[in-house]
Amino acid sequence: MHSKVLRKLVSETDRGLLQKKDAVSQNVEHLSKEGEHGSAQLRAVRPTEALKAFFDRIPLQTIPGIKNTGVTEVHAGQTIEEAIRLLYKEDVLGAPVLDVPLGSEMAGPLTDHYVGLVDLGSMILWALEEFEVKEPQAQVRGLQVAEDSELSKGPSNGRGVEGSVKVAEGVSKKVNDDFWSLLSRLDDIGSSKVGALARSFRWGPFLPIYPEDSLLHILLLLSKHSLKAAPVVDPDDNKVKGFITQDAAMQLLLQCSGVPWFDSTAQKQLCQFMFEADQPPGHLVYVYEDKPLLDAFHCLWKYRVTAVPILERETDRLIGCVRTSDARILLQDERLFRGRRKITVKEFMGADKVSPAYQRQKSVVEERIGAAVSAAVLSLGSFTRPPMQDPVTSISTDTLEDTIKKLVVARSDRSFMVDDKRQLMGVITTRDIIIQFSPPLGEEPDRWGDLFDNAL
């Protein structure tokens, strides 16, 4: 009986999410008008199963822009330097890594030819970590790498500050000591192959999805495998055409607002989910404002997080965050790169001002909340982020839907939970949120794994 009512409420059409939502709302309204019998049928429908059925009947191919014209790819045989330069030039956050010889045609399953998805920010963090190991070794060999504020005394050519590099005793030449020149000079870093090191800085495995897959499938995939993005493959030419990112998933969830089964979870306060209980204060990762900038980037690399909260030393108040994507600033600003060991995190954040581009982007996103997902969101293209001094924060009385909206506007994947003194209480990630809407809702976490394994 329950399944029959559910099928009646959730039609089998291939309409888009917004049209499906309207159709379901009308079906619920009609059934509620059938008197006590209709009301009893509605009460008998479990919200968990209803939401699962709703998501399972939203094909991805109904999302506008799901088939883009193509994406930037990195080849496993390329060097780290080539890959960083490519993604930086194309202004993208990441790319799939293709493990096929240049000029060769792919044969067999698509998953056999891709290593995974790599992240530009993580590749930069990896290089920074390697610099700390290789620079001292280079100095021992007689290659004196100039650094920090001492270089500011030399003339600038617009691309980098010139410093002296001793190749051998009594011999010297001029070099531009920015990120790019150091990456080139320390050859065993820049010349390392992407394919050999992809596991060190990849977002996750290459798990393709197809236009005929459902929204339920992608939610399960993002939550089960902690993916930042899942590649959308066109079955006709067997090529990656776009991505469903966690950001896109958040926007798709917001479009469900008004569906009773969605609202029953989304309108709960955060304190009802016990997010803080999963992150004891002693286990929270953070960096104090007066620490060197390099410490913040090292923290991002060590703990494999996309953002680290920055606290005020005297009060432990949250005053900002440094994100993995902020590492690309070191590619643009040679002064910050050279001074990364001495410049404080607070000074670094202070240089990050609110840009007119971000204000425009924020206004557009706020206006479009709940509307169709744009094609731009379905790519890994770079975008303007809020300044580092303005991290996404939540308090325990915020609803889950409030938090989703904040994350969508900021294009962020995490919100920092704070108390009334703005002291850090916990972290809520987009994955934490997606899990709440992935079946079975309301089950204990130790029971989720088996269901995901079976469903996938």
UniProtKB/TrEMBL annotation:
<feature type="domain" description="CBS">
    <location>
        <begin position="200"/>
        <end position="264"/>
    </location>
</feature>
<keyword id="KW-0677">Repeat</keyword>
<keyword id="KW-0129">CBS domain</keyword>
<dbReference type="InterPro" id="IPR050511">
    <property type="entry name" value="AMPK_gamma/SDS23_families"/>
</dbReference>
<dbReference type="InterPro" id="IPR046342">
    <property type="entry name" value="CBS_dom_sf"/>
</dbReference>
<protein>
    <recommendedName>
        <fullName>CBS domain-containing protein</fullName>
    </recommendedName>
</protein>
<feature type="domain" description="CBS">
    <location>
        <begin position="279"/>
        <end position="337"/>
    </location>
</feature>
<dbReference type="InterPro" id="IPR000644">
    <property type="entry name" value="CBS_dom"/>
</dbReference>
<dbReference type="Pfam" id="PF00571">
    <property type="entry name" value="CBS"/>
</dbReference>
<feature type="domain" description="CBS">
    <location>
        <begin position="387"/>
        <end position="444"/>
    </location>
</feature>
